[in-house]
Amino acid sequence: MNGDGVEALATLPAKNDCDGGAVWQDAGIPLTTPDARVPRKDARRAGPAYQGHAMADRDLLDRAFHRVLLTFIERGSAPHYTELARDFGLAPEAGRTLLHDLMAAGIPAWLHPSTELIASFAPFNNLPTHYCVSVDGERKWYAQCGFEAAAMCWIFPGKTVVVEAPCLDCGEPLRLTMRDGEVLAAEPETMVGYVSLPPKEWAQDLAFA
Which fold would CATH assign to domain 124-193? Predict the structure, then answer.
């Protein structure tokens, strides 16, 4: 066991067994079921090479999810999969696979196309967006979208969170100040949020939505 209480996992073989969970079991990686599979509709975010392979243990996925969020909070950017591997006592290849599993787990997050770099991980965005976020006067975060920007106040409890962005309709500046779920100021007071795509279609392409 490492310092986080996560069992150290053996290095994965060079190729995944896309027909079942044998490779993961042989590598000592716990599965959610003997034949747990990545849901095909969500595996698109992880890349075609990962469709159908056995998925990592839910507890490990929860820990990875928490670690990614903490890294964003601490430094304003996402961790690389080698950092996840180091944090959990894994071989780099196992950390890489863990990242792809996390992205395929149905959360509002995705990798930059054709890479293994986190592009977005709600409520944060690793790529700069027009939703600039400041916490107690420190500006180093970007929000995934306008609605996720409003959720930033829960990520930083007890702190004053300011979101600044241009209006996508008229281009005028918008500024929203929050603390612990309470809106302290909205400039202008008439600002509203909207999405031009029906919610039922968001999951088809989260980055576009």
Answer: Bactericidal permeability-increasing protein; domain 1 (3.15.10)
